[in-house]
Amino acid sequence: MKILYFGYLYDIDGVSLGAKIKVLELLTPLQNLGHEVKIYWLNRQPDSKNSAKIKTRQFFKEKFSRYLHEPNQIVANFKYFWKEKKIIQAEKPDIIIARLDVYKFSSLLISKLYKIPLLIELDSPVVYEFRTFQPHYKTNIFLLNFLEKINLNYSHKIFTVSNQIKNYYVKKGVRPENIQFISNGVDIQKFHPHIDRKKINAKYDLKHTLTIGFVGTLHFWHGINNLMKLIDTILSCNNEVRFLIVGSGGPLHNEIKEFVKNGRLEDRVILTGFISYDEMPDHIAAMDIVLAPYSKLSFFYYSPLKIFEYMACGKPVVTAKLGQIVEIIKDEFNGLLCEPGNIEDMKNKIMALISDREFRERIGMEARKTVVEQHAWKNKALQLEKLCLEVANS
């Protein structure tokens, strides 16, 4: 079977890195199963060159994007359509997989024009997310809902990363049998408990300390405010602990830097900045306890990659009792669950792990066992293969 993937993400090596990794990790095993898979990123990526042309474009974007974003996005579909048309004519695939994004409908047109089955990747409630996290754009909600609806109703099948997203769309009228749940996963060969931590220990002088770690962009929905409170309360009662914060970007990047500077915590809180994905396993290996301190969100629909990666490395995870997380983690068996935003609860769970190495190791061992049995990317690829075959033969 020949499969084409069309993605419209912007900045696939920056803010959209997690979504890019998911695509690569999920589709690569399909090739190992004997299928031909080709991935096309169709959006223009940011240019690192600081040219006058880019500065001019940025100036106009800042001035007028509120009003021009929507018409630009609609017009972009015709650009995507011609790109996709040329690709389809050259590749002649058996099936198209396209990531759903706001305003996008080119892949649906291509599917109907060439009578090629279309499978929609639905990794977020796209209209809800766009309206919630980018409210500065002037939008037509009726248009947004219409485009989302025709994509979901006229594609052949849909797959999504969480039951929370599936249930959200079922309530909006999508037939439940048309949506397949395939959660995110982890490369259990790349992330494992036997990675040598000496390199990172030496780099950050972590040899004689217990290290608490966090991986992710410094955004409010990752619980960065909770993280800062935890750092403050844990360091005030324990002199043997250090924090390793791996990641960059997001609106709270400067805030956490100021927090560390103002608290004179540079020796006890390490902010690594940007780390390539290839270096991520080494950094997680250097952590003794790992955090995913998500805030209390009314709609937590994510399938957090970092939690799978933490667990694959055999680390005890302290995280919030939200959404899909409670489907993955059983409290005090393969991780520790806390009430979202309850700093005292999180602190107590962390302190219990700090004081008991055997407890840490037991939790970490069960975490590794869980992802190997249930959440390896190969298992996810087998689910997707079954869905692709169903669509291609329908």
Write a brief structural summary:
This protein has 394 residues and is an alpha/beta fold. The protein has helices spanning 17-32, 52-91, 106-114, 126-133, 141-154, 163-171, 198-204, 224-237, 253-262, 280-285, 305-312, 325-328, 343-355, 357-374, 377-392, and strands at 2-7, 36-41, 95-99, 118-122, 157-160, 179-181, 210-215, 241-246, 269-271, 289-292, 317-320, 336-338. The longest helix is centred in the N-terminal third of the chain and has 40 residues, at 52-91.
Describe this structure in words.
- The protein has 394 residues and is α/β, with parallel strands linked by helices.
- The protein has 15 helices and 12 strands.
- It is globular, with a radius of gyration of 22 Å.
pLDDT < 50 runs, ≥5 residues: 51-56
Please give the share of residues in helix: 40-55%
Count of spatially separate domains: 2
CATH architectural type of the largest domain: 3-Layer(aba) Sandwich
Question: What's the overall geometry?
Answer: globular
List the helices and strands and how they pair.
Layout lengths: L1 E6 L9 H16 L3 E6 L10 H40 L3 E5 L6 H9 L3 E5 L3 H8 L7 H14 L2 E4 L2 H9 L7 E3 L16 H7 L5 E6 L8 H14 L3 E6 L6 H10 L6 E3 L8 H6 L3 E4 L12 H8 L4 E4 L4 H4 L7 E3 L4 H13 L1 H18 L2 H16 L2
Parallel strand pairs: 1-2, 1-3, 3-4, 4-5, 5-6, 7-8, 7-10, 8-9, 10-11, 11-12
Helix pairs in contact: 1-15, 2-3, 8-13, 11-14
Features:
394 residues, alpha/beta, Rossmann fold, 2 domains, 6-stranded parallel sheet, 15 helices, 12 strands, 14% strand, globular
